[in-house]
Amino acid sequence: MESLLRITDLTGQEFAILTVIVVLAGLVRGFSGFALSAMIMATAILILPPIELLPMLWWLEMSASLLMLKGGWADADRGTAIGLVIGSTAGWPLGLWLTVTLPVETSKLIALSVIIVLAASQLSKLKLPFLATKPGLYGTGIVAGIVSGLAHVGGMVVALYVLASDAPARQMRGSLVLFLFLGSLTSMITLLAFGVMDFSGITRGLVFALPTLLGVYLGQKMFIPTLAQYYRPFCLALLCVLAGAGLIRTTLF
Length: 253
What we know:
Elements: H1 2-8, H2 12-32, H3 36-44, H4 50-75, H5 78-101, H6 104-123, H7 134-151, H8 154-163, H9 169-193, H10 199-222, H11 228-252
């Protein structure tokens, strides 16, 4: 245990808290197809700054995507997912540049605020007809890339895009899984170019990948037809609560 604490540069309490966080976030990811990074960013941001969470989250997202890829590939709207990835690749550098240049506390506030706004938009069933167009597709991808580089919550933006097309829950879930997998491949280049993917981020990502995968596996088992209608509002409401609590704590303490 001491060796794990040493290579992750965490205290025992921080390690235990992060383990619980990633298992719960993995559970939601396995069930909904997204929100892994958003949940971790909304809670673990009180332990680690966004710039240190981003490289760790890359490994956790990739691990979850690999476990879910088979079903995601079969259910996804592949053309939409690829278009979103192209736009996201263009937006990632700008978001990451903001994360690198902004003060830590400012970055925390922006990251948590982004999560609340996106989650609240989806809970209100906001639909924008413009999104169901080619410019809307690539524009959504660019915005997803920016907020991914800033707060690693691009999946939330993509989910908002999918809402505009009234896609079935299974197709939405599959498209998100495919988008996050393909997006992870391109975002690694940006993380390396900005020097964000460091040894600490890699070791934390690999160490916490196992508990994350446990959560993802259990979450997948929960995705059954009778519960599909409840998964979206549940996840979004949870994100609003977590991000709101984190925002209040970050502001007041």
